[in-house]
Amino acid sequence: MKSFIVLVSLLFGSVAGAEVKKGDHFVELDAKTAGGKHFRLKDMAGKWVLYTFGASWCEPCHKELPAWDKLAPKFAGKILFVTVNINNKEAEGKEFIDSLKLKHLFPVFLPDENSPALKAYDPDRMPSTFVVDPQGTIQLIEYGYSAGDETKLAAKLSEVLPQAIYHLT
Questions:
Q1: With contact defined as beta carbons under 8 Å apart, do 117 and 82 qualify?
Q2: Is the peptide bond before 107 cis (omega within 30 degrees of 0)?
Q3: Contact status, residue 46 vs residue 128, Cβ threshold 8 Å
């Protein structure tokens, strides 16, 4: 376990985290789409976006991403669900995302451990989820995943998103 914590620290910085909090401005992503195009936060201006940082080696991510994929259609047209894969090798990240057969999450890849976004968010608990408003301000942060968290997230999204009432079926 100790060697795992050291490895995570080397890859992502200190285990203490970057202390990103609600109300902070979301740091620009320097990610790429599966097709190799740049994906930037500024391209999402005017939209609500849920970003979840994860990787193939993150066991909770194997459960969280399919759960968010089932939740996303309930918020269609209100918020875009983006999965930010941080595998060091982009090919491994793509293989992981492909294996999950996600239909409603938009995958982007951020394999560079020197990324300003990774340094800013320093995801010490995986997965790390951030809901960002149309002005780029973080409105909600969730760390980790346990079964049933999708119901909790749906309730929180219904509180955060303007003029919307959502019901899980």
A1: no
A2: no
A3: no
33-73 pLDDT, tens digit per residue, is: 999 999 988 888 889 999 999 999 999 999 999 999 999 99
pLDDT digits (tens, 9 = 90+) for 85-122: 999 898 999 999 999 999 999 999 988 776 777 777 66
Spatial CA neighbour of 140 closest among 30, 70, 50, 9 = 50
Going by their DSSP bridges, the two strands 79-85 and 106-109 should be labelled as parallel
Dihedrals φ, ψ of 85, to 5°?
-85, 130
Of the listed ranges 4-13, 28-37, 68-77, 119-128, the least confidently predicted one is: 4-13
Residue 160's identity, in one-letter code, is V
Strand arrangement, sheet containing 31-33: 38-39, 31-33, 106-109, 79-85, 48-54, 128-132, 138-143
Q: pTM score, two decimals?
A: 0.81
Residue reference for tokens 């346990």: 146
* 128-132/138-143 β-pairing: antiparallel
Q: Read off the amino acid at residue 158.
A: S
Pairing of strands 128-132, 48-54: antiparallel
- Phi-psi group of 115: left, alpha or beta (phi > 0 → left; psi -120 to 50 → alpha; rest → beta): beta
* Cα–Cα distance for residue pair 131/125, rounded to 1 Å: 16
d(CA 124, CA 17): 6
